[in-house]
Amino acid sequence: MSKKGLPFLRRMQNRFHLSSFQTILAGFAGVILLGALLLMLPAASRAREVTPFLDALFTSTSATCVTGLVVYDTWTHWSLFGQAVILVLIQIGGLGVVTMAVALAVLSGKRVSLMQRSVMQDSISSGHVGGMVRLTRFLVRASAAMELAGAAVLFPVFARDFGFRKGLWYAVFHAVSAFCNAGFDLLGSRGQFSSLTGYVKNPVVNITVMALITVGGIGFLVWEDLVRNRMRLTHCRLQTKVVLAASLFLDLVPAALFYFCEYRGISGGTRILAALFQSVTCRTAGFNTTDLTRFSDSGIFLMIFLMLIGGSPGSTAGGMKTTTAALLFASAISVFRRRDDTVMFKRRVENDTVREAAAILMMYLLLFAGSAMVISRVEHVTLLAAMFETGSAVGTVGLTLGLTPKLGALSHIILIVLMYFGRVGGLTVIYAAVKKAGHGARFPKETLTVG
Question: Of 159, 388, 392, 397, which is most buried with the most CB atoms under 10 A?
């Protein structure tokens, strides 16, 4: 292999002796810092003033980690240049820093080394290192096609409401933001932090945005598997079947609960659109078509639950991932039935994978709950409101009850850390920080009673 491919990643790994997981963390951190510096420039704000570093860092982290939590309304505060920087960060964060680096290397005609293929493999959670270049080409082309298709469908609506030039920019921005599951919007001209509330009755905007969110959130490897097997699910890998089944369940069941419990004041097709949109956006995207502050406590708690689960592995979404939740549920079922193995779609799942899922669940719950308690204490807000913001951050969702812009510096730093952790992935952080233990002596076994 040539040693010319991706020189930045190679130099960084060789100079600092970084593992693949550490390279992923460093890559995201570098893009976030660069984005923050660009957003601090006077040209990035409408007032042509320097944006405070912490606010710029928060916005850059939210965009790169495709979250959508903001301290400023995107349209009101940021200039066209600032919005363009945010859009580029969203695109890089959605596809992944390593994926974008590999794509640039491939487009420039450079060879991709085995080390870079290995980093790419860990970045998208692929089970094998072979075919990374081919997969990268597929991801970039498919992503561009879907974003362009979404923009083409949204354009007539936005052009009608905002004129040709602004409508075109709105269509592109919101298509990329939806596909990358970012949740950033430019509709502040209709009211700050309004998101898509002005389009709750518009089926074109609702269906298009939901479709982009869903396609972006199911995972790159799922697309590739479906295309390779010509959409025949019986021939697809276990991962694809679990992702599609879990995603369908997590979209439809909460939508029914929202429909019957939270949207009783809305009638007709608008009620169906609102309920389904809220269910889809909760796990990954951060857009909203209705006022979230009007939800009951039980509705807010359901949204927190969905935000923590998030999207699927190797996708533009964050969170614990649908496969983690599905595997833990299947493991519980196996215990209830007194089976020795965890079985999904007539396939046995290794116990090591179940242990990893349990570890991920514990990490996310500790981060989510611990951070919420700190924010609740420091900001003197209810624990439920704080849990909503921290769940949205660590799940890289971006929904908010209006609390984030009002928080202090310490709380913003906590949310920055949560967004970063949620995007790069729990296991990536752990594997980057902890060296693999050797095969030492095994301790005596003893029974422990649980339950």
Answer: 397
- The answer to whether 67 and 183 are in contact (CB under 8 A) is yes
Here the contacts of 185-190 (C-beta below 8 Å, separation 24 or greater) are: 185/74, 185/75, 185/287, 186/74, 186/75, 186/83, 187/75, 188/73, 188/74, 188/75, 188/76, 189/75, 189/76, 189/162
Rounded to an integer, what is the distance from CA 135 to the centroid of its chain? 20
How confident is the model over 78-126, as pLDDT tens digits?
A: 999 999 999 999 999 888 877 777 777 666 666 666 666 666 666 666 6
Write down the pLDDT at residue 8. 52
DSSP 272-333: HHHHHHHHHHHHHT---SS-GGGS-HHHHHHHHHHHHH-S-TTSS--SS-HHHHHHHHHHHH
Distance CA 284, CA 123 (A): 18
Give the residue ranges of DSSP H helices in 337-408.
351-379, 383-394
Amino acid (1-letter code) at residue 182: A
Token pair 């960060």 is found at 89
